[in-house]
Design goal:
It is a single chain. By secondary structure, the chain is mainly beta. It has a single domain (about 1-340), classed as Beta-galactosidase, Chain A, domain 5 (Distorted Sandwich), CATH 2.70.98. Helices cover about 5% and strands about 40% of the residues. It is built from two helices and 29 strands. The protein has helices spanning about 60-65, 235-240; strands spanning about 1-10, 15-25, 30-35, 40-45, 50-55, 75, 80, 85-90, 90-95, 105, 120, 125-130, 145-150, 155-165, 170, 175, 190-195, 200, 210-215, 225, 245-250, 255-260, 265-270, 275-280, 290, 295, 305, 320-325, 330-340. Strand 18 and strand 19 form a beta hairpin. About 45% of the residues are buried.
Length: about 350
């Protein structure tokens, strides 16, 4: 297992960005940036015996700083949305940044995907770590976070999250990679299987209301594999409110999803110890420069973000995102790649 460190351009203020490239025995390669603990590239074997980069991103470090969409970034302190950008903890009310209408999204204006991390090569992986100081984005507690990225010889991308705090706080970490297993074109022909029976109802701001809906008889039923685009244009209120899929699914076991790219034959299985996963079909993507002179268009990527349920502090019965002082957070998500014949 080889890790190569190099300079990946610089930010607007001239600060250098460091990249770590991890290559496994099969020739698959993962590139992670210290800015945002961001997955910049992930090349895995395809059906034709070559390699396909299956995550969207940029060749210019400044674009990770200035463009929306959070491409490949590590999201925190709290991924997804918090209603009215506020929560109460231990009898104290905390007001957060309203950076998504009236709601708080992906950690605020300076979420974890928009700040530098300390990056280093480990024996068999890449380590990104940072200390989020007490009061950052108005969250309480000094939060120490470590994210490890591994790419095994059997083409398993493992992301391991660890966190500790000196005061009770909220934590919901995830990765925001946009996957395109064909390497180009929209993802509507990608086939998706998810065993989930329920998903979270959204309001008009893509914020969970607290209700969990059954997938039976709806376009949200992926228990039988189908194309992402098969029912995305259906006359369904939940699809209309989000402009497509942008919903948290309730997971019932370790195996969360299987995604398949028909052009390359690449299959990706998502495994996690977390209770939820956001399916996002790139509904708000706008044209932007991609890698190798390409242009990224609408719906050219799909996100499968393992997570705690969004808006959990405001929804009774949702798994709690509270990390208590002196307690340790540890969670793992795997993206396992293979080729379907």
């Amino acid at each position: 297992m080889a890790v190569q460190l190099y300079t990946f351009g610089s930010l607007r203020d001239g600060s250098p960005v460091t990249a770590a490239k991890l290559t496994n025995a099969s020739g698959a390669a993962l590139t992670v940036l210290d800015f945002g603990a961001t997955i910049q590239a992930l090349r895995v074997p395809n059906r034709d015996g070559g390699f396909t980069d299956v995550v969207l991103g940029y060749d210019d470090a400044k674009l990770y700083e200035t463009m929306d969409g959070n491409f490949g970034g590590t999201i925190g302190r709290v991924g997804n949305r918090i209603g009215k950008a506020e929560f109460s903890l231990n009898g104290k009310r905390y007001q957060l940044a309203k950076n998504d209408g009236e709601n708080h999204l992906h950690g605020g204006f300076q979420g974890f995907h928009l700040v530098p991390w300390t990056l280093s090569a480990e024996k068999d992986g890449i380590l990104c770590k940072r200390l989020s100081p007490d009061g950052e984005e108005n969250y309480p507690g000094n939060l120490s976070v470590e994210v490890r990225f591994y790419l095994t010889d059997d083409n398993r991308l493992r992301i391991v999250y660890d966190a500790d705090t000196d005061a009770d706080t909220l934590v919901n970490l995830t990765n925001h990679s946009y996957f395109n297993l064909d390497g180009e074109g929209d993802i509507l022909s990608h086939r998706l299987w998810m065993p989930c029976e329920r998903f979270a109802e959204n309001d008009g701001g893509c914020l969970p209301t607290g209700r969990l809906l059954w997938v039976d008889g709806t376009p949200f039923d992926f228990r039988t594999e189908k194309e992402i685009g098969a029912e995305i244009g259906t006359d369904d209120l939940q699809l209309k409110l989000a402009g497509g899929y942008d919903h948290n699914y309730v997971l019932t076991g370790k195996k969360a999803a299987v995604l398949y790219g028909p052009k390359t034959g690449i299959e990706m299985t998502v495994e996690t110890d977390l209770p939820g996963m956001q399916l996002y079909s790139g509904n708000f993507m706008t044209d932007r420069p991609g890698k190798n002179g390409s242009t990224i268009h609408w719906r050219e990527g799909v996100c499968l973000e393992t997570q705690l349920y969004p808006n959990a502090m405001n929804c009774y019965g949702f798994p709690s995102p509270v990390l208590r002082a002196g307690c340790h957070l540890h969670t793992e998500t795997d993206y396992v790649f293979g080729v379907r014949g």
